[in-house]
């Protein structure tokens, strides 16, 4: 374990992160509000701590090993979770505890979108912007952004990328150099954000709201600057724009890259994961519309179509925006949407959940086992498109699924032991582990009523989901620390 190089990287990360507190300071001064001091003190503290970590090891030269990469990634999210909580805690008007500030910070960075804050419409613009900024930075993983600038720091980044990149096809690259890959992903990410903000602005949002909501839309985050979320705007045009960019944000960014490079939509249509992803959204939306229209006396067809389609895309992609109180709809719909969030977005996207590609592989493996029962001597190969999938990948997917289910059940049981009812506990774990945000029962609106212990446990659940289980669990294995 190269502790010196890990310390150097963490110091650099903290110094880099401190500069993300400067835009909220400028916004606070622009609107002449009272949160600038909290951000400024946080900026100075993080910059100082980062510099003190960096200074003793500034001349350390060494390559990162894969094991070091796992440590850096987990430390990065833990340290940044605490660092991001500083402005919330230091802004006295919020009057929130350390667990609450930590919950809000980790929820933002992991793009979960669960919140403990109420009265958003009355909060300073700087605090509102900062929440959205956390989600935007976390959307593609701040690690990937750091990989893009690693050459300037004199450190190779492939180890970090492998530890952070989501989905079973880890380590695949769009361009020969990993830094170029990270830059390509961020160009696409930034381009989608600009396009989304412009569309929101033209559709009637204020410039502040347009930029803020574009951050959380493309990041598949779900934070809003208003308590009513997207329902605040009551605009069908804005809802359509949100649905388009939520859909795009949950698509594998490697596909966006291929489409931009080839200038044709065929990469989408040839991709098995994308086809299943789009098909599932259509099926889930259709079922939601039908159930809402047929089982709710308060919804005509077009109202049911508008509300159910928006909620279906938002929840299924793990964004978490809402335009209606879907928890009060016929019980089939909220349960369907919650289960849809388990599938989530595509691998290599900003979406949460288990990822569509894993579900596709589980389905194909199930088909293979049935064929083996029918034809015991047959050699059946699992393929994605025309490409055969290695058995090691399928084994990894089954291992992930088993770990996911086991941890889900364990965290849910602990929450119930600590006083939560079954619906609240189940939906809280689903909403945090899938990086979704809103749940059912006691957490349908926010998580403010939960105990500090439950909030901290759900922070761990968010981290598990964001780091896709194994990246975090591997550090808990004794074998990882043996030389």
Structural notes for this entry:
It is globular, with a radius of gyration of 22 Å. With 483 residues, the chain is an all-alpha fold. It is 65% helix and 1% strand. The protein has helices at residues 3-18, 22-31, 36-54, 66-90, 98-109, 125-139, 142-153, 158-164, 178-203, 207-218, 236-249, 253-262, 266-270, 272-295, 301-316, 332-343, 356-374, 391-417, 422-433, 452-466, 470-473, 478-481, and strands spanning 383-384, 387-388. The protein contains 22 helices and 2 strands. The termini are close together.
Overview features:
483 residues, 2 strands, globular
Distance between the ends: 8 Å
Sketch the major β-sheet: 2 strands, antiparallel
Mean pLDDT across every amino acid position: 89
Rg over alpha carbons: 22 Å
Helical element count? 22
Order of helices and strands: HHHHHHHHHHHHHHHHHEEHHHHH
How many DSSP-defined strands? 2
- Poorly predicted runs: 148-156
Strand order of the largest sheet: 1-2
- Oligomeric form: single chain
Secondary structure class reads mainly alpha
Strand residue percentage: under 5%
Shape: globular
Proportion of helical residues: 55-70%
């Amino acid at each position: 374990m190269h502790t010196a190089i890990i310390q150097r990287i963490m110091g650099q990360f903290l110094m880099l992160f401190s500069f993300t507190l400067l835009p909220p300071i400028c916004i606070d001064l622009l609107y002449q509000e009272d949160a600038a001091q909290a951000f400024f003190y946080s900026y100075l503290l993080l910059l100082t701590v980062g510099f003190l970590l960096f200074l003793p090891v500034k001349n350390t030269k060494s390559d990162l090993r894969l094991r070091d990469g796992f440590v850096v990634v987990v430390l990065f999210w833990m340290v940044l979770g605490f660092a991001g909580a500083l402005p919330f805690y230091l802004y006295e008007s919020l009057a929130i505890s350390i667990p609450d500030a930590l919950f809000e910070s980790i929820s933002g960075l992991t793009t979960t979108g669960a919140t403990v804050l109420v009265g958003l419409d009355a909060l300073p613009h700087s605090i509102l912007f900062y929440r959205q900024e956390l989600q935007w930075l976390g959307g593609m993983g701040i690690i990937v952004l750091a990989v893009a600038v690693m050459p300037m720091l004199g450190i190779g980044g492939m180890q970090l990328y492998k530890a952070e990149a989501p989905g079973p096809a880890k380590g695949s690259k769009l361009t020969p150099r990993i830094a170029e890959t990270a830059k390509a992903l961020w160009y696409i990410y930034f381009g989608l954000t600009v396009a989304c903000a412009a569309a929101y602005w033209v559709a009637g949002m204020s410039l502040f709201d347009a930029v803020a909501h574009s951050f959380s839309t493309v990041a598949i985050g779900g934070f809003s600057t208003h308590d009513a979320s997207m329902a605040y705007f009551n605009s069908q045009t804005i809802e359509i724009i949100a649905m388009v960019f939520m859909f795009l944000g949950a698509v594998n960014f490697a596909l966006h890259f291929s489409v931009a490079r080839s200038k044709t939509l065929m990469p989408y249509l040839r991709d098995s994961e994308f086809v299943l992803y789009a098909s599932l959204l259509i099926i889930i939306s259709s079922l939601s519309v039908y159930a809402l229209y047929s089982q709710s006396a308060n919804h005509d067809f077009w109202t049911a179509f508008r509300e159910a389609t928006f909620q279906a895309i938002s929840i299924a992609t793990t964004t978490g925006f809402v335009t209606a109180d879907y928890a009060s709809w016929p019980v089939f719909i909220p349960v369907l949407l919650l289960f849809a969030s388990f599938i989530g977005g595509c691998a290599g996207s900003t979406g949460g959940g288990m990822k569509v590609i894993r579900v596709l592989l589980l389905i194909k493996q199930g088909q293979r086992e049935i064929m083996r029962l029918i034809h015991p001597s047959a050699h059946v190969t699992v393929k994605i498109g025309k490409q055969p999938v290695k058995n090691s990948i399928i084994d990894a997917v089954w291992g992930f699924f088993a770990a996911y289910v086991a941890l889900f059940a364990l965290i849910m049981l602990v929450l119930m032991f600590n006083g939560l009812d079954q619906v609240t506990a189940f939906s809280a774990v689903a909403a945090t582990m899938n990086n979704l945000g809103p749940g059912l029962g006691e957490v349908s609106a926010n998580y403010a009523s939960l105990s500090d212990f439950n909030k901290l446990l759900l922070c761990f659940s968010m981290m598990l989901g964001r780091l896709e289980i194994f990246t975090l669990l591997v550090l808990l294995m004794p074998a990882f620390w043996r030389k």
